[in-house]
Fold:
Amino acid sequence: MPTPTAGDDALADFSPDREYARALDDTDSLSGLRERFSVPEDERYMDGNSLGLCSADAEAAIDRVVAAWKDLAIRGWTDADPDWFHYGERLGARLAPLVGAQESEVVVGNSTTVNIHTLVGTMLDEYEGTTVLVNDLDFPTDHYAIAAQLRQRGLDPDEHLLRVESEDGRTITADAVEVALETHDVDIVFMPTVLYRSGQLLDVARITELAHEHGAVAGFDAAHSVGVVPHSFDDVGVDFAVWCTYKYLNAGPGALAGLYVNERHFGAEPALAGWWGHDKATQFEMNHEFTPAADAGAWQIGTIPVLAAAPLDGSLDVTHDAGIEALREKSTLLTEYLIRLADERLSDLGYAVGTPRDPDRRGGHVALEHDEAYRISQALRDRGVVVDYRPPNVVRVAPSPYYVGFEEVWTVAEDLRAIAADRRFEHYEPQSGGVT
Structure:
């Protein structure tokens, strides 16, 4: 029976048959987590990097808040357990170990895009910055928000929003970031931890080091890594970061986002100020002068929507019970197994792996490239396989370590093979118009 381990020897005895997958499941110490989730019946859910599934823990946390609302009404802000007034800070403290931060440096609030607005805007103001370095494979909202912040300061994004170009259309290298920093005067480097299309895990430590060597601050969008990849933001000197909680953290559609601000930036004036970022001790004195909290809580804006925050409280129970290192190890094995299956069973049918094969450069999903990726993704859904498509040619397969097993991955690979071998995708119309 195989015993999967992380590192160079992972899946050394790989076999493409179903019995091997079952044997891997038998040795999976996290297989019991699946029982805590509502997994759709008759489906193979491989879209956890877009929306994680609902857990009994998240549902119970919502029920607790609803019960407190019924019993306590407005007194829930102070008397609920936990009290609602400090909910964002409490959840930030629970998230801090996942990103390698002090509790005071993390808070939950706003949305990812709003947090990009306020943190990039803050850094532009604090350091009188005029240029931001991003890359051409970013998730679009990052560019939208940064361009808007530049325009609000009278700066033309065409001149001040600089892009690192990808050499292969899949990845961004630290060397390319270094060249851009040596070529341009950059004030802020803002990169994803994981590229949303290819699944490349960027070198956060090296990019941060390069930014600081060239007099810039380093920020990251960690939406596609928090909850499945451990981070060490403090140790490597990251200045700020943002992320959502509805992907690998399984906190529900539109759940509140998280943010990290290194303590050396405490005291900076938030670019988007709101009363929930006020110093808690004097918040209800209702002074018209904004006194920001002395820690990351200053970057909260509006009143925390407790019903939208509660699922994260529950879902974090699952993450902490499993352990982020164990989740990362299983995730790496799942994606490695899928890549091996793609090589063995799919490569002769036009599929290519667009994700880095080095596990240290890979996040939690695999990008399978195919000329008919759009129609294949439609055919998969009709077979009960939930994935997503990213133009121009990527089927993203995300085997979440929380609730996906190896045999399930094997079955999905067989579905992919059957659809291409029998050309079943030809029953579907080519893509036209928007992406679904």
User: Anything to note?
Assistant: The longest strand covers residues 188-192.
